[in-house]
Specification:
By secondary structure, this protein is mainly alpha-helical. About 75% of the residues lie in helices and about 5% in strands.
């Protein structure tokens, strides 16, 4: 019924295999993760905006990271949840598929660049604390954030343009729950080896281009921390970087498994699991990793909740 299209104008998402009962369980689980992620990130943004104690580069970057994670999940997860409720396959237009892929890739690229900027911020804070406020001033931080957003959205124009200029004549059924570039290549009847190689190299460039500043920064950070004579001093210095380092390890591991793959015909189950890590699990974990062990943030949160309680009480 859906084969031998010379030019597909819509796509069908197979989504998740299994019974209706399994789909209901998956819907409840993913909806919980998505809702908690949205609420937690909105709390972070709200706290950073209203409290002067969080007016520092680290929290400025964290606020923008929360915005990016909210947008990235909102581009993909609601459509995935809707697909779990439908009795059949989810249908999306070619334009909607193109828009989703572009936004998802652009926001993801900007997020990786922001992770790199946060690593450099931690390097300056630990290795050059006396010049921290001079180097990481508000002007610098603003331009770093603007550059991350602009680069992410400009860089992904050609990959999405090249992907959707392929001829999808084999089928218009995507074995996924969102518009994945690798799955789109599987549907193409074009030989497009050069395009596929270029997209692979661009993925490598984004991932490792943003990962290298992080690796270099943490090499210097660890070297500086090991030179601190007291154990309490070493722990205090490391605690300022621990949450970011944890999120970097989780985030880049998931992204490497998902994007850096020369063979686009990998098993659909592998793609689904890796995508769920990037789109559902990581955005759920990151707000808690960044805030639960952050004494300043928990203090601000406690004070704001106390003030809200007093307002409601009065």
């Amino acid at each position: 019924m859906l084969k031998n299209y010379s030019s597909a104008t819509e796509f069908y998402f197979l989504g998740f295999p299994g019974s209706k009962e399994l789909h209901n369980i998956l819907f409840a689980t993913f909806f919980f993760f998505y809702s908690v992620s949205l609420i937690a990130n909105m709390v972070i943004i709200f706290m950073v905006c209203i409290d002067n104690r969080l007016q520092s580069p680290m929290y400025f970057f964290l606020g923008h990271l929360s915005v990016l994670e909210m947008l990235t999940t909102t581009v993909t997860v609601p459509l995935m949840l809707w697909g779990l409720l439908l009795p059949g396959m989810l249908v999306v237009s070619l334009t909607a598929c193109c828009t989703q892929l572009y936004l998802y890739l652009s926001l993801g690229t900007s997020e990786l660049l922001l992770f790199a900027a946060m690593a450099v911020d931690r390097y300056v804070a630990v290795c050059n604390p006396l010049r921290y406020t001079i180097i990481m001033n508000s002007h610098t931080c603003l331009w770093v954030v603007i550059a991350s957003w602009v680069f992410g959205f400009l860089f992904q124009i050609w990959p999405v343009y090249a992907t959707f200029h392929l001829s999808f004549c084999k089928s218009n059924v995507l074995d996924h729950f969102y518009c994945d570039g690798g799955q789109l290549f599987k549907l193409s009847c074009d030989k497009g080896r050069f395009t596929e190689l270029m997209l692979f190299l661009m993925s490598i460039f984004v991932l490792f281009g943003s990962l290298m500043p992080t690796i270099i920064s943490y090499t210097y950070i660890i070297s500086t921390i090991l030179k601190i004579p007291s154990g309490s001093g070493r722990w205090k210095a490391f605690s300022t970087c621990a949450s970011h380092f944890t999120c970097v390890v989780i985030g880049y591991s998931s992204s490497l498994f998902l994007y850096v793959k020369l063979n686009h015909t990998q098993a659909a189950e592998y793609n689904r699991v890796a995508s769920l890590m990037v789109l559902v699990v990581n955005p759920f974990l990151n707000p808690f990793i960044f805030t639960l062990r952050n004494d300043k943030f928990t203090e601000v949160f406690r004070d704001v909740m106390r003030s809200c309680y007093q307002l409601l009480k009065d």
